[in-house]
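Lecture notes, continued. The same structure-token format from the folding unit now serves as the input rather than the output. Read the line below as a description of shape only.
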């Protein structure tokens, strides 16, 4: 996947995760809230992966 694709998927997972957490809190569904937290975390990691790819590409392009 490209840097941009990783970042877009990361943002999508963060938004979805936050929504699941909110629904889980409002409906008193701990499992859904935890699932949302995990998905939000996955989104953070995907964005970081995109950042790393961009940094590596920048170094390679300068070499």
């Amino acid at each position: 996947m490209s840097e941009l694709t990783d970042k877009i998927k990361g943002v999508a997972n963060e938004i979805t995760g936050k929504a699941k957490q909110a629904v889980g809190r409002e409906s008193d569904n701990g499992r859904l809230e935890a699932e949302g937290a995990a998905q939000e975390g996955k989104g953070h990691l995907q964005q970081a992966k995109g950042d790393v790819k961009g940094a590596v590409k920048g170094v390679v392009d300068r070499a």
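Point for the exam: The chain has a mean pLDDT of 95.
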